[in-house]
Design a protein that fits this description.
Blueprint lengths: L5 E2 L13 H13 L12 E4 L4 H12 L9 E7 L9 E4 L3 E4 L2 E4 L2 H11 L2 E3 L5 H4 L2 H7 L4 E7 L4 H15 L4 E6 L4 E3 L1 H16 L3 H10 L7 H13 L5 E8 L10 E9 L1
Parallel strand pairs: 1-5, 2-9, 3-8, 3-9, 4-7
Antiparallel strand pairs: 2-12, 4-8, 5-6, 10-12, 11-12
Helix pairs in contact: 1-2, 1-5, 3-6, 6-9, 8-9
Length: 273
């Protein structure tokens, strides 16, 4: 009998990420521990991390999570795109009390979701197969302890929605120790050289701390990120919470671990301080 209040680990299938607890712990810990801890100015408020299968992007995600390892956060607001249409073009959350991975359970902050729902009219979904949020959890569980989760799918990534969501998050967490996480990959299925050029252009908006420019470039097709809306919303919120700088921790493409460089996907880890 399944517990209907728990979202199961749908993508713990040894393809997206390991299904076994020991294997998953070892893999994620390895990605984090092998990355250097950078001497960053100020506290990390926001993190941008990729969400492909761990074989492809785990080393990039690990480099980002290394910068928050052991951090004092009681809340994690996790934003990701909607790849499957579960959000029906709106902002949505999976209506569970707990998210489960092979590493254990993460409680959902129902109170904060209720606060956001009052302003944003979040759609509740009971069944979803979205990977962009789930694959971040083992990294969060390994890097942090004792946090509650606010997972939101962005089926609407318009400029207005990014601003509204960012403002609502900032107001809702102002008295909390909060980490904001945007889950995104960058360009998709471009030749290696073209992907790196396009990704550099996209990342420059982030590194310039220019969420307005990012959403405009995404709308014009001049930038590319499947989670561009989550990135912009996290930047809007982080800026209201005092963040002023963005730091590129690691960049790679699938071509760095896979022989086919004719159709690669770009990945980056960025922290906002």
């Amino acid at each position: 009998m399944t517990d209907s209040s728990v979202r199961p680990p749908i993508h713990a299938d040894d393809q997206w990420y390991p299904a076994g607890m020991a294997a998953l712990r070892d893999e994620v810990s390895g990605y984090i521990e092998r990355a250097p801890a950078l001497d960053l100015p100020g506290k990390v408020i926001g993190l941008i991390a990729p969400h492909a299968g761990y074989f492809f992007s785990g080393h990039v995600a690990g480099a980002g999570y290394r910068q928050v390892q052991g951090g004092d956060y009681d809340t994690v607001v996790l934003l990701g795109p909607d790849h499957t249409g579960a959000a029906f073009g709106s902002l949505a959350y999976a209506d569970f009390d707990t998210w489960r991975t092979p590493l254990g359970d993460v409680p959902v902050d129902r109170d904060l979701i209720a606060v956001l729902d009052q302003r944003l009219r979040l759609r509740r979904v009971r069944h979803d197969s979205e990977h962009s949020l789930e694959v971040q959890l083992p990294f969060l569980q390994t890097a942090l302890t004792g946090f509650k989760l606010v997972p939101i799918m962005m089926g609407d990534q318009s400029s207005a929605t990014c601003r509204e969501l960012g403002a609502a998050i900032a107001d809702g967490v102002r008295d909390r120790q909060t980490l904001l996480v945007a889950s995104t990959d960058l360009s998709h299925y471009q030749p290696e050289a073209a992907a790196r050029r396009l990704d550099q252009h996209t990342l420059q908006y982030v590194l310039d701390f220019d969420p307005e420019g990012l959403v405009e470039a995404l709308a014009r097709g001049e930038a590319s990120a499947c989670g561009g809306g989550p990135v912009a919303a996290v930047m809007f919120a982080a800026r209201q919470l005092g963040a002023t700088q963005a730091h590129l921790v690691k960049y790679a493409t699938s071509g760095d671990v896979w022989e086919d460089r004719s159709r690669v996907v770009g990945y980056a880890a960025v922290v906002l301080t």
